[in-house]
Amino acid sequence: MTSIFEGTLIRLRAREPEDAPLLYRWFNDTEVTRHLAMRYPLSMKSERDFIERVSAPGYAHAGFAVETLAESRLIGGVDLLNTTPECRCASLGIAIGDKTAWDGGYGTDTMRTVCRFGFEMMNLHRIELEVYAENQRARHVYEKVGFVVEGRRRDALFKYGRYQDVLVMSLLEGELQVEQRQ
Ligand SMILES: CC(C)(COP(=O)(O)OP(=O)(O)OC[C@H]1O[C@@H](n2cnc3c(N)ncnc32)[C@H](O)[C@@H]1OP(=O)(O)O)[C@@H](O)C(=O)NCCC(=O)NCCS
Questions:
Q1: What's the rounded Cα separation, in Å, for the pair 143 and 121?
Q2: How many CB atoms lie within 10 A of CB 66?
Q3: Does residue 75's CB lie within 6 angstroms of at least one atom of ligand 1?
Q4: d(C-alpha 179, C-alpha 72), whole Å
Q5: Given CB 3.0 to 4.6 Å as the disulfide criterion, which of 88, 108, 111, 180 pairs with 125?
Q6: For the segment 88-144, what is each residue's pLDDT rounded down to a tens digit?
Q7: What is the fold of 10-172?
Q8: d(C-alpha 112, C-alpha 144), whole Å
Q9: How far is the CA of 88 from the centre of ligand 1 (A)?
Q10: Pairing of strands 61-68, 162-172
Q11: What's the whole-model pTM score?
């Protein structure tokens, strides 16, 4: 049986202190953060503090580093957080910070792997996320794995001199779309 932490291209693991330099580089790169909430420069200390805070994944915050299966190369991170046990609901955030890995299938595989973990290991019923309307790549990935748009927060984001809408999407247990094999 393959590991619950592994997809077809990626493996989820806990974040480690040694990950800080790469995260520092990615999250100070405006191409990476363009569709993320970040807007101010991040210090190395804030990256180290973040890793320390989230490096013991648990129910309240299941945070993971994402690495390639082929080379065990760190390419990003994904988090299930703000978990509400009464509603069995969590919020999801993902960033494939290594731009050279974009459009290589890693984001899709990460979404499937972390959602499967949420449903099968954390007994979640609902996983929700927010995505900026202009983030076409992310929207495509989320819809591909089964997320549906359930709301639009009009002009909720102001960045780069203009407003844009923020979409609310969710996935319920049983709705995860697994890879279609040819
Ligand atoms: C969004 C993100 C997670 C996607 O990960 P990824 O590894 O690039 O995604 P994948 O390679 O699995 O899939 C990308 C898909 O988007 C498609 N795509 C790329 N650009 C697109 C665009 N402008 N419009 C529509 N679809 C697009 C690709 O064709 C591919 O679809 P396909 O596999 O059906 O052909 C990743 O690019 C990322 O982290 N970006 C920076 C941070 C970010 O935006 N995070 C999400 C915040 S909500």
A1: 23
A2: 29
A3: no
A4: 22
A5: 88
A6: 999 999 999 999 999 999 999 999 999 999 999 999 999 999 999 999 999 999 999
A7: Aminopeptidase (3.40.630)
A8: 10
A9: 27
A10: unpaired
A11: 0.97
